[in-house]
Write a structure and sequence with these properties.
The complex is a heterodimer of chains A (181) and B (187). Chain A has 181 residues and is mostly helical. Chain A has 8 helices and no strands. Chain A is 71% helix and 0% strand. In chain A, helix 2 crosses helix 3, helix 3 crosses helix 4 and helix 7 packs across helix 8. Chain B is α+β, with helices and mostly antiparallel strands. Chain B has a 4-stranded antiparallel sheet. Classes of the chains: A mainly alpha (181), B alpha+beta (187). The interface between A and B is large, with 62 and 70 residues.
């Protein structure tokens, strides 16, 4: 027996009196997906992902009054989060994360491998690949979220996939070789 | 949102978890930061609509006991307004015909399970079915098909594994019942 309110109702409740209860409901509903996205976007940097999550909520509440429901609330939050991650990482945006150096020891490509390989991608490629292949956004949506044109989104996705495929093939060959030894 | 093509080597990306719980304390830290900026106000009375929404199920639960129901469709709003991207699953509760006393206990326990899920942000609704032989229309049920459906819940879950995890935590399982999970077709 329960009551689950819609995003719109929670937002209305929050805007009415800055209700902490309404905010906490929104936070609990959307933060797990936002955190997963921030973690991948930041290349597996947990501290930066959490800071970006907090920044994103602060910024979102400051602008919530202006939100016109022309997209899903989650998509809007995602757009804010992308900017927060970028700002948090700044010059490190172009560096691979420390976790990327971790040796992959699993017998075949699995979810952990894919996560680690994602972290090794250049951030621009990674963002497009995560948005498209993990989150399921369209190229048009990705272009809007990242402030790039659709053609760039498509070409970056193609290059990101090609890079990932190359790494996966390399990984597979290494494992085959080690099994033969 | 959609996925416009297939890539065998990278299809595992689709199965990566789309939700990861933020570190413990993240909510408190965020709330503190927002409170410091005056963006949230603590200790607000529940808005009238939310208060009504919370009180209504309680009132209906009391009425539901008399009617032999443990759940009324008060969470239909959540089903109607669920996130379009969030897969939904139906948990079909089979078996277990309890005494009246045990039944009353299960009403409360099943309700707590649903409330806990909702508190953690999972969309959930459900209803108990009246304890009576089912009316079957059309062909007979296949041999061995279970007919003792007791109730159902509809939950939002990231994927089948997540739905299974939610079902495993349901008190119906602990009480010796069986739960069948089926994904709801989004079309």
């Amino acid at each position: 027996l329960t009551v689950v309110t819609s995003d719109r109702q929670l937002v209305d409740d929050y805007l009415r009196d800055r209700s902490e209860d309404a905010f906490r409901d929104l936070f609990r509903r959307h933060s797990p997906s936002m955190y997963a996205f921030a973690l991948r976007l930041s290349g597996g940097r947990h501290a930066e992902a959490e800071d970006a999550l907090q920044d994103a909520w602060v910024r979102a509440l400051l602008r919530l009054q202006e939100f016109r429901w022309e997209s899903a609330l989650r998509t809007w939050l995602c757009g804010i989060l992308i900017n927060c991650v970028r700002e948090r990482l700044r010059d490190r945006w172009l560096e691979p994360a420390e976790q990327a150096a971790r040796v992959i020891t699993h017998p075949r490509a699995n979810a952990l491998d894919l996560e680690q390989l994602l972290y090794r991608l250049a951030p621009g490629y990674r963002a497009v690949l995560v948005l498209h292949d993990v989150e399921g956004y369209t190229h048009a949506e990705i272009a809007g979220l990242l402030g790039i044109d659709v053609g760039t989104a498509k070409s970056q996705l193609s290059r990101a996939r090609s890079t990932m495929r190359g790494w996966l093939n390399h990984l597979s060959e290494d494992r085959d070789a080690s099994r033969r030894r | 949102m959609h996925r416009d093509d297939d890539d065998e080597a990278l299809k595992g990306l689709r199965d990566l978890p789309r939700e990861i719980a933020p570190p413990g304390g993240a909510e408190v830290r965020t709330v503190t930061a927002l409170r410091d900026r005056g963006l949230i106000v603590s200790g607000q009375r529940l808005p009238r609509r939310r208060a009504a929404a919370l009180l209504l199920p309680i009132a209906l639960t009391i009425g539901g006991f008399a009617a032999g129901w443990f759940l009324r469709p008060m969470a239909r709003d959540s089903v109607a307004s669920h996130s379009p991207d969030q897969p939904r699953f139906v948990l079909l509760l089979y078996g277990r015909t309890d005494s009246e006393t045990v039944k009353d206990d299960s009403v409360a326990e099943y309700g707590r399970w649903a409330r806990d899920l909702a508190r953690n942000g999972t969309g959930v609704s459900g209803e108990k079915l009246v304890d009576a032989p089912p009316t079957i229309v059309g062909a007979q049920l296949p041999a061995g098909a279970p007919a003792d459906l007791r109730g159902y819940f509809i939950v939002e879950a990231a994927d089948e594994q997540h739905a299974r995890m939610l079902a495993v935590s349901h008190p119906h399982v602990k009480r010796g019942g069986t739960i069948v999970i089926r994904r709801i077709d989004p079309t």
